[in-house]
Design brief:
- By secondary structure, the protein is mainly alpha-helical.
- The protein has one domain.
- Helices cover 52% and strands 11% of the residues.
- A three-stranded parallel β-sheet has the order 1-2-3.
- Helix 2 packs parallel to helix 4 and helix 3 runs antiparallel to helix 4.
- The longest helix has 31 residues.
């Protein structure tokens, strides 16, 4: 990519947790995932950080937690309801925080990159054209 003038933006997790982690401790439902993700992020920073300057830890955490481990719509197809959604969300955010802290403390000062998380965005409009609904839309648009 760099040889062709394309700046890479790397997403570390895009709904593709290794099966071994799912089998071992329930994947995103197990607290162990945060330390495993930290080790994975460390390997990525160390091996690709000289070329990748834009990192995203997770792609669309809502989709991961609600559709994968909450409703079971996407693989691994675990339908744990709200309990699964919140367990996944907690562990995912802890993993993001650990990876972000490592990057800020160790790699960013040398590699001069950026790190974030890719959130999904959905547009919403009020069901009526009431004054209150218009106010809420204007608040949303001003954010």
């Amino acid at each position: 990519m760099l040889a062709n003038g394309i700046e890479p933006y790397a997403t570390m997790f895009h709904w593709d947790l290794p099966q071994a982690l799912q089998d071992s401790y329930g994947g995103m439902l197990g607290e162990e995932v945060a330390d495993d993700f930290l080790n994975y992020a460390n390997a990525l920073y160390a091996n690709f950080g000289d070329r990748v300057k834009n990192w995203m830890t997770f792609n669309e955490p809502w989709v991961t937690c609600v559709l994968q481990w909450g409703q079971g719509v996407f693989a691994p197809g675990i339908n744990n309801g709200v309990k699964g959604q919140y367990a996944c969300g907690h562990n995912l955010l802890v993993a993001h925080g650990k990876a972000a802290q490592l990057y800020r403390d160790v790699y960013q000062p040398v590699q001069k990159g950026r790190l974030g998380i890719a959130l999904n965005i959905e547009w919403g409009e009020p069901g009526t054209s009431s004054e209150a609904g218009e106010y809420l839309v204007s608040l949303f648009l001003s954010c």
